[in-house]
Amino acid sequence: MSYSFLDFLCLLGSVALFLYGMKVMSEGLQKAAGDRLRNILSAMTRNRFTGMLTGLLITALIQSSSASTVMVVSFVNAGLMSLGQSMAVIMGANVGTTFTAWVIALFGFKVNISAFVLPVIGLSIPLLFSKSSRNKSIGEFFIGFSFLFMGLDMISTYVPDLQSNPEMFAFLQRYTSMGFGSVLIFCMVGMLLTMVIQSSAATFAITLIMCSKGWIDFDLSCALVLGSNIGTTITPLMASMGGNVAAKRTAMGHLLFNLLGTVWTLAIFFPFCHFTQWLTEELGQGDPAALSAYVNHIEATDPDTYNHLFDNSLPAGHPVSVKVAALQQSVSIGLSVFHTVFNLINLCVMIWMTGLYVKIVEKLVPSRPNHEEEFQLKFIQGGMMSASELNISQAEKEIVVYAQRVQRMVGMAQEIVRHKDSAEEFTRQFSRLEKYEEISDRMEIEIADYLNRCSEGRLSNEGKHRIASMLRIVGEIESMADCCYSIAKIMLRKHDSKAKFNEEIYNNIETMFIAVEAAVTNEILLLHAIENADEKDIISSYNYEREINNLRNQMRSANIENINDHLYEYQAGIFYMDIIGSLEKIGDYVINVVDEIKTLMRNSHA
Known about the structure:
The protein is mainly alpha-helical. Helices cover 78% and strands 0% of the residues. The chain is elongated.
């Protein structure tokens, strides 16, 4: 097999075309679908059975379980799909991938989707010049789709041709007579082969060639196909490496599903293979186990015919080549039956254990301990930046987490005030709040940087407006965190100056904290439904703001009288009013966030 450096460069170019096609297709789809994509996904995965059907149909259409599970991983990473929903889709994808095996079995290797690429590009180009931005996006989607399959076709052209050079696998013949040990070895080979060439369909084709040459029998062919099921999980695992914990759990769930399915199949491997042979014969396709025996018989009795058979020099219509072709079809159908029955049984058993799967992967991929005390974004952790519209949804989820963290800071500031003169507890709480303030600053920078990178992608006008509003919301939330830290520093100055608060001051500050916490809680409720917020909750926010302002005005007036009446010292009154002023500012920042949410609602419903 000659493989030049130019072939390698062509392979790199083919991969680049494939990736570029995926990027253009993804951006076109998201600009055409916009925020509707989230609703579509929700409808498609509303229960485990619709999720399973979704995975099955998508994988059957794009003929790649790896591609569909990578897509699921990115949706989970974006917070658009829950872990439970993703498990059902992945289970369906494993059945959908058998469609490719049936295409190969029934039509050979003549099915070439890339034949439609140029006509699709020709029909899509006019859409790019349309005045409608939605039509332009649809055109981009189809052009990206075409590039994707053109890249796939070229990858198969320039990848080292293992199918035409099966001699590379001839050494495996020495491991075919080890009983169940051979099954385990060939299962491992199928797994590693699929990991390397990133295609269970190609593994299927190589398996058929090896069986046709008489190197392995039908049982070991089934072991190769079984191993390829585990090999397909490597792509989602690699995709999840740059994702969050939920994405890693989704990829782990895919691996676990295929691994457990392989384990129970290996436990009953030989009876299962015999059942597959019987089922293939019942379908009228002959005995799939007969091919290797027949080819080995020809090799032993007529070596010349055997050699001519595999260098394609036998005359057309030769009885040996006709017989081998019929038996090859039988093996191909038999392997497809094995693959399909294995995945169907696996699905029928595992679909009822979706909840258990979720618990197991949560144990296998735990969240980081003490995550509240560490700097860790929950929904955006680098990685997949190819889907800008979806990434906005990721950021929206992260903003809710950010607001909840700042809400905890309000509680910490309240605790610092409550501890009064307990120096040890005050120091501990102050250090904790100071750490949260540092985390808050870093979260603001990370989320804002992420949104800026999203804005550099190809976005709809609605997406651009969403990012602008979200950047302002992030700034307001960070200002709330600053106010909490400011309260802690005021209390530190109070301690250093030995100023004393009376019970009335403590009670008034407590009343103000209660009003502010109610406003922040209501703000988080609105952020959860950022584009479909309830009008009553918005009105409640303005009511909370008025209540906070009224309390501030009442306390300011009473403070002057209390100082004049010598109820506490002037310096204590200054610290007291500084704390009340900081709390009132938090209320102002909450209203600023609510105003931005109202803007987002108007834009999304326009």
